[in-house]
Each structure stands twice: as C-alpha cells, then as structure tokens.
Design brief:
mainly alpha, Heme Oxygenase, Chain A
C-alpha cells in the first residue's frame, strides 16, 4: 500500500464497473428530486431559537435530536448556508483551488483524483510537521480534531432508508458504513479505535452522547460548525445524495483522522472512490447529469476547503515554540473550565476583578487573563517551591478534581516558568479563522433555507401519508401526523393486554416479565401458533389470486426494516440492544450486498409474477387502485415507528420481536407452496424463513436484545423502572400483533380476535 505522502497518478477503477443488474431502474437512485421541503409554521421560530446558541451547543443539539421538525429545519439551514460557501466567503477561492472543471457535463475522474491527492499530501505534511515538535504539540493536535474524528462518517447514518433502497450506490455506502461500525461489534468500529488512540496519547473525552462532548472536544467555533454541518448532512442523505457521495470520497481521500491516529483505514480511499465512481457511471444517461455532477464536485470543494482551513488553524496553534505552546495549552484549559467559575469564586481576584466576572471569550481576553494570572499572588512561589494555586489543586485542596491529571501537569510546568516570563507578553496564535466562523454563523442564522414551504399537514388520506412518510426528508411537517398515529396505535394495541383469547398468529396478552417468562411466551407462540398448526395446503389458490395477493403483500414488504432504519445513528450504537437492532436492519439490507438486499428480493419476486411496480418513493406507486386502502394501515405503522427511535425505543424493541417471529412456520411455508406451484420465485419467503429462525436468527436476536435492555435498565434504575420499560416493550409487540391480525385505528380489538373467520393476516413479512 502506498504511504500517505506518496502520490497516486490515476484514479482507481471499480473492478466490475456498473453491470446491467445495477442499472435496473430500481437500483438507479441518484438522489431525491421532489424539490420542496415542507415544515409546519411552528417549526420556524423554534429553529431560529436553536440557531442562536453557540456553535458547540448547536452541534450537541443536532447530535442528540433526530426527531423534531425544528432540528431538521435548522439542519437544512446549516446545509444550504455551508454549501453556498463561495457566495459569502471571498477567501474560499484563494484557500482552495477550484475542483477540476466539468467537461461536457462529465467529471474528469483522473483530474479529480489527482486534485484530492494533492490536498492529501499537503494535509499530511502539515500535521506531521506539528507532531514532530513533540508529545505536547501532538496531543493538542489530536484534541483539536477530536470532535470531527469521533463523529466518524455520520453522513451515512440514514443513507439507507425506504426512499433510497435498493439503490446500487446506496448499498455500496451502506456496506462501508457496516464496516465502519465494526460489523456489529462496537469495539471494532473506526470511532472506537480512534478513541482508544486518543486515550493512548493522553486525550480523554466524554462519550459523544453526553452534552459536554463538544464543549470538551471542539476548542473553537470553526470545528463546532464543521461538526454541525456534518450532522446536518446526516439528516438529508437521500435528497443530498450527490453531496454525500462527494464528501464521503473526499473525506477518505484526505484520510486525516486515521493518519493522525496512526490507524489503517477501515474504508480505504480506493473503496470510498468506488461509490463515487458508481454514482458517476449511473449518471451517464440521466437528463440531470450535469446538475448532479456539479453538486457533487462543489460539495467536495466546500468540504476540502473547510478541512484545509481547520488543518491550517490547528497547525499554527500547535506548532509554536515550546514556551508559547505551554501558553496555548493553558489557554485551552482555561477555555474549557472558565464557564464553570461560579459565585464561589467571587473572593478570588485576578487583575483586580473577581474571577466569576472575568470574561475569556476571545484569544485577546485569554492572553490578558493569563498575563494577569501569571503576575498574581496565586502563582507567586513560596518557600517550598510551590504556590497557592498548585496547593489548591492538590489532593485535599479546594480545587482538587477540577483539573485532570494531564491538565494539572501542564499547569505545574507553566507555573515553573512563570517567574522567568512574568514580564514577557503572552502571544496566543491569532485566530485567523475566527472572522470566517462568525461570518459562517451569521449566514446560517440569517439566510432562509432554500425551497422550503411552511404549512401544516392536515387531513391526509392513507395513500398520501404513505408517500410523504417514505419521502420524509421533504415532508418533515408530516412527523406530527406520524407521531399521533403511533400513539393511537399503541393505545389500541394495549387493549389486547386484557384480551380473553390470543390472536391467530400472535399472543399479546400481558404477563409479568422475567427472562424465563418471556422465553416461555415466545416458545408458546412459536410452537402453538406458527409451527405446529402447519399443514400443506390441500387446495392452491388460482394463479390470479396468488399474483394479486403478492402485489398487496408487497406494500408491507417494500418497507422491510423501516421501523429500525434510524436505529444506528451516531452516538446510538452503544449497548447490546442498540447493536442488535442495527445488526438486524443491516441484515435486512443485505449488509451492503445489492443482490442480498431484501428489497431487491421483493422486486425479484414481483418480476417473476410479471408485476412492474413503481418505486414506493414515486407518486405513481400510491395511484395503483388494485391495492385497497385498508392495506396501507400496516406499512404506515412501520414507517411511523421508524421516525422516532428515541421516543419509542422500548416499543420498537417489542415491535421487532413481533416482526421477526411472525414469518416463522405456517405463513411463509404456505406462501412458498403457492409460489412454487405456479412457477414463481419464492426467494423472499425462503430467505426470511431461514434468517428469522428462533434458534440463532433474527427472532432469537430480538429476544436477546429485550432481555439485555431490561437487565441494564434494572441494574441502572431499579425494578420499578424495569417494570415500566417492560410494559412499553410489550406494548410494541402488541402494536405489531394488533395490526398484523387485521386491526385498524378504528376497529375493536375484541371484535377482531373473536371473528369466526379466523383469517385476519394483513401481510406476510
């Protein structure tokens, strides 16, 4: 493998290229083209308020929230402001030369690869020069990049979703995301390995999911705004797919964070280039090829420009002389702790002012504070060679525990040179990019997001709601409707807790949780309702009936995994349950293998039946009159659940158990029999009958996830909290049971379960 500073003359080529299978219409997803982004009017002032916060608070808020309209609107505003960098930053062109020009609407790939390679070499040289100055400089360098390094490839969080699957490029990206997340083992993820590398170098940071992460990891506004931009992109990967593809390729071409950590890349720059190359191949006969290509290369230019500016800023800060380096490190410590200097410090005076009133918002303020502090009585050496300040931070002192061991060591070294340098001016590196950060922030706050419409989403019929939930990036105003629908479904389903009898395929009657009781109930359902009742069909329905049945079954199958597609977002995959839920979804998507993707398998079955359906993201799909309105109920429930991975996390765990259990035994075996009888492809049914198995498959994994989650809940919060969590989990299972047995938001559960016909199954899964 070539070293990081070596140049590559030509761009790598994907060995197989884009074959005819990948060129099929269902696989040629190049990005959403609906055009408008719909929000409720109430989202506007809430988003404005969110964006008045400081950059690190904006980034933290975006990381934590993925479900509210105001955060989605704020993310849209950040995206549009950042991607228009050249319009408001006069220095952008001077910082980064333009990307290679488009030629007749096509990207010169070789020139683009060389352009990226030039910047990769320059970045590596700058960082290696700083690292050569010693441990302290390298440590500050690592801390300065930590916020971006530990976000990883967050822009891929929801690149796989109902609107984008089974796209060929999307599957390449999703396969790489699966690798980056450790293939189901969080300890092997690229971010986990980077964190271990940081800690080896003495940089210790809070978990990324904690509110204080960005305050500790992003020492300047530029870095926080870059983090906010990346997180904003993660909210719109379908509609901004050209930008995602370009930025993904650019990030891995530069290879900054793995190089700094001394790690081999999990996804090489050649592998990331494969997605870009496949995207450009797919554009060849597209009428919007030039527009989409321009979006892709401009996003790369913006991304590289921001990275080069941050690299330059960090290199200048960390590459000073040893004395100035100490001043810089102490300035960073003060930055991190100054916001917490409360009223208890009012008797402490520095430069004639109470410490609680000292403002250190700029480097100029910091330099003045450090000068005054260095001359103060708190750093005056005593007879023992110490000082009041160092005594205060020792064990037993009033400030013990405020500073880390590493920070205390820096402060001690700084004190030891304080007497000799007390009269020397303190020169902190000029924050050259601070004006840019302020300009960037001002543009984010004042530039209205493009193509936005503010209107409520009221009185939607089920077909329109289905279309909007699939294309949720463009219809955030539909989220409140989906939320109401989930709540109503859960309320209806909870009535099954006290039902006198179980359903035909499910048993949602409530029971007190224990790991053994859950296993007993699941095995009872498995044997008593799904396996033992099976007997081959004595009479096969007509060919037309089978074709018709498969067409409306596809309505549910085409949103396979939709309830869990947001389960593995940045900062989420931390527990056994989180990891298991995302692993199940990844399996449903073929782990990035397009031919094993379950949505691909459904289209394969439909093709064998002679059915050519539009993709579910297209309006033409909901115009099909052959599918009765009542059959939209079940997929709407799945799509609505999927929008709220935080709010309905326990319910989603229970729902997953229901989904993965249901297809075992009788239901799928009958479908396979019918399909084989008429010479149709049974692959979708056969695959699920296998991978959902209760021995070690998805059904067992769902059971294990619930047990692990409840054990952790009881360990952390006690038995009472565990009981509440269990009721919510079982409500999620009941929600699945209610709709799969034929329930609606208006139906009576008791009437549904006592229907003598006994055939209520709305869908196979």
């Amino acid at each position: 493998m070539k070293g990081l500073l070596q140049s590559t003359d030509i761009s790598p080529k994907s060995p197989a290229g884009v074959n005819e299978f990948q060129r099929a219409p269902i696989h040629r997803f190049l990005g959403g083209r609906i055009g408008k982004f719909h929000f409720t009017p109430e989202a506007r002032p809430l988003a404005d308020t969110l964006l008045t916060a400081e950059p690190d608070e904006i980034a933290a808020s975006l990381l934590k929230a993925c479900e509210s309209e105001e955060h989605l609107l704020a993310a849209k505003q950040i995206l549009d402001a950042t991607l228009s960098l050249a319009e408001w930053d006069d220095g952008a062109a001077e910082t980064i030369a333009p990307t290679p020009a488009l030629r007749d609407g096509r990207v010169d790939r070789t020139a683009l690869w060389r352009w990226l390679d030039t910047h990769r070499i320059a970045v590596a040289a700058a960082f290696d020069g700083v690292a050569a100055l010693g441990t302290a400089a390298k440590r500050e360098l690592l801390r300065g990049r930590a916020a971006l390094s530990l976000l990883g490839d967050c822009w891929l969080d929801t690149v796989s979703q109902p609107a984008s699957q089974p796209g060929a490029v999307v599957n390449i990206l999703f396969g790489q995301r699966w690798l980056l997340l450790g293939e189901g083992c969080p300890a092997r993820s690229s971010v986990a390995m980077r964190r271990r590398s940081l800690e080896t170098e003495g940089v210790f940071l809070p978990p990324i999911s904690e509110a204080g992460f960005f305050r500790a990891a992003a020492p300047d506004a530029m870095t926080s705004l870059q983090a906010a931009f990346r997180l904003s992109l993660s909210r719109y990967p379908a509609t901004y797919l050209p930008e995602v593809v370009g930025i993904h390729a650019a990030c891995h071409a530069l290879g900054i964070d793995d190089h700094l950590a001394g790690l081999p890349p999990v996804v090489t720059r050649e592998a990331a280039w494969e997605a870009l190359s496949a995207y450009l191949d797919a554009l060849e006969d597209d009428p919007e090829a030039e527009t989409l290509s321009r979006r892709l290369v401009e996003a790369m230019r913006v991304f590289v420009s921001l990275e080069r500016r941050q690299v330059s800023m960090l290199a200048e800060r960390c590459g000073r002389s040893p004395g100035h380096s100490l001043d810089l490190q102490v300035a960073g410590i003060v930055r991190r702790h100054a916001p917490f200097a409360g009223k208890q410090h009012k008797l402490v005076r520095i430069g004639g002012k109470p410490l609680s009133e000292v403002v250190v918002e700029t480097d100029q303020d910091l330099a003045g504070f450090l000068r005054d502090f260095k001359r103060s009585s708190y750093l005056r050496a005593d007879a023992k060679g110490g000082c009041r300040f160092l005594d205060a931070i020792k064990f037993g002192g009033p400030m013990f525990g405020i500073f880390s061991e590493h920070e205390a060591s820096i402060l001690k070294s700084w004190f030891q040179g304080a007497a000799q340098t007390a009269d020397e001016p303190i020169l902190l590196p000029e924050a050259r990019d601070e004006p840019l950060a302020q300009l960037w922030l001002a543009n984010i706050r004042t530039r209205p997001p493009r193509d936005t419409v503010f209107e409520p989403a009221a009185d939607l019929d089920d077909r329109t709601l289905f279309y909007r939930l699939v294309n949720i990036e463009n219809f955030a105003n539909t989220s409140p409707v989906a939320l109401d629908r989930v709540r109503a479904g859960l309320a209806q389903a909870e009535l099954l807790f006290d039902a006198e009898t179980a359903g035909r395929y499910t048993d949602a009657r409530f029971f007190e949780y224990s790991p053994e009781a859950l296993v007993a109930r699941i095995e009872s359902i498995y044997w008593g309702k799904l396996v033992d009742p099976y007997a081959p069909l004595g009479e096969i329905p007509s060919r037309d009936e089978v074709v018709f049945g498969q067409k409306y079954y596809a309505l549910g199958n085409l949103v396979d995994g939709a309830w869990a597609y947001r389960s593995g977002g940045t900062g989420r995959v931390e527990s056994v349950a989180d990891t298991g839920l995302f692993a199940i979804y990844a399996d449903e998507m073929g782990l990035g293998d397009l031919e094993k993707n379950h949505i691909t398998l459904i289209y394969r079955v439909l093709k064998s039946l002679g059915i050519d359906q539009p993709h579910i993201r297209e309006e033409a799909f909901i115009d099909q009159d052959e599918i009765p309105d009542i059959f939209y109920t079940f997929p709407l429930n799945q799509l609505s659940f999927g929008l709220f991975p935080n709010r309905f996390y326990p319910e989603i765990l229970g729902y997953t158990l229901g989904v993965e259990m249901f297809g075992l035994g009788e239901v799928r075996l009958h479908e396979i029999q019918k399909l084989k009888h008429w010479g149709f492809d049974p692959i979708y049914e056969a695959v699920h009958l296998s991978i959902d198995n209760l021995s070690a498959g998805h059904a067992r994994q769902a059971l294990t996830m619930i047990q692990a989650h409840l054990a952790e809940t009881e360990r952390r919060y006690g038995a009472a909290a565990c009981a509440v969590e269990w009721r919510r989990i079982w409500n999620g299972y009941a929600s699945f049971a209610y709709f799969v047995e034929g329930g609606t938001l208006e139906a009576s559960p008791s009437a549904m379960l006592h229907d003598e016909a006994g055939d209520h199954c709305a869908f196979t899964l």
